[in-house]
Amino acid sequence: MPKRPSKASPAYSPADILKLARSSIQALKPYVPGRSIEDVKAQYHPKQIVKLGSNENPLGANPKVLKAIAKVLPKISLYPDGSSRVLREELAKYCSAKDGAVSADEIIVGNGSDEILLMIALAFVKPGERVVVSENTFSEYEFSGRVLDAEIVKVPLKEFRYDVDAFAKALAKKPKMMFLCNPNNPTGNYITHGELEWLLKKTPRSCLVVVDEAYGDYATEKDFPRSVELMRKFPNLLIARTFSKLFGLAGLRLGYGIGAAELLRETLRVKTPFNVNLLVQTAAVTALNDKTFINKSLSVNSKGRLQIEDGLQKLGLFYLPTQANFICFHVPRPAVDLCEELLKRGMIIRALKSFGLPDWCRVTIGTREQNAFFLTELKSALQRA
């Protein structure tokens, strides 16, 4: 009979863990989310809390979606359709009506658009290859490259817009992938159709161009890119979109990609089984077919944008024109301090220090009542400075 050990084996030390882990992941920075209602309530105990910090749909959950989810709850003991066939077919119909003919084979779905971005990188980026991203943008583009030991090439913004000329010059470094956020988070401005087409003409097919249109549903400018049309001309273009904003499904996590079927077949090789669960698939199909909720969301955003812009002008604050569901504005003191003061008042917006913009804030466009609360509390917080 073996002898019982005299004492427990020693635990791993931090040095031991570092030896086991890939050294390259030490450069990865954790994503910094916006503050939650529960967190603010526990810390500050305000009488009222309005959250306009994470670009969620201010209308809340779609009642039709809630009913549809309730109907399928008895089926959660069964695995969902691993290919999300019905959802992809419904997405193909939705995109075809909006963008021109798209087939289900040209659509891939994932656990948020974050997973779509990562899957594309996993399928095509090799260690040491270059990935081009912009500064002052969504951090997951850099993450998707760094997690694969890619070399990150950063292009600065020019007058708070993507510098398309600088992206074209970055092609001299022979990158494997290029990420563009359009409209850009957190600035809200956009690359035009002509600019994107010009850049794609200069980009060799050996470089994949991934355009994240998480906020594209809100864009109204006539020269906003017709990205699916461009995908037909340039098969190295991949488009990422989300259900988190317009459709109000941020908590369920669903994103999708549109691209050449040949590229997506390779991307599917790195997809985990059943990555989109039963409730999400049901919710998404319902949301796609609820035009009333979609139109109301767009209307609330359009009216709210004008309301907030007018309020910021009256406060003498500079803001950037937006094609998204948020507004980026400059503040006269460190944004983190201002946002902390607003948290005490029950107002959650986003300080942009983690985006490299320490004197800027981002506010989600809410309902008329939410926007009014924000402007009132912002005025009071600024007067205390």
How would you explain this protein's 3D organization?
The protein has 14 helices and twelve strands. With 385 residues, it is an alpha/beta fold. The strands form three sheets. Strands 2-8-7-6-5-3-4 form a seven-stranded mixed sheet, sandwiched between helices. Helix 5 packs parallel to helix 6. The chain is globular. The termini are far apart. The model has no long low-confidence stretch (mean pLDDT 95).
The shape, in one word, is: globular
Major sheet summary line: 7 strands, mixed
> Which strands sit side by side, in order, in the main sheet?
2-8-7-6-5-3-4
The CATH superfamily of the largest domain is: Type I PLP-dependent aspartate aminotransferase-like (Major domain)
Salient structural properties:
Aspartate Aminotransferase, domain 1, alpha/beta, globular, 12 strands, 385 residues, 14 helices
Give a short summary of the structure.
The protein is of the alpha/beta class. The chain has helices at residues 14-20, 37-44, 63-72, 85-99, 112-124, 140-146, 164-170, 193-202, 227-233, 261-267, 278-288, 291-314, 335-344, 368-383, and strands at 50-51, 107-110, 130-134, 151-155, 177-181, 208-212, 237-242, 255-258, 326-330, 347-348, 350-351, 360-364. The chain is built from 14 helices and twelve strands.
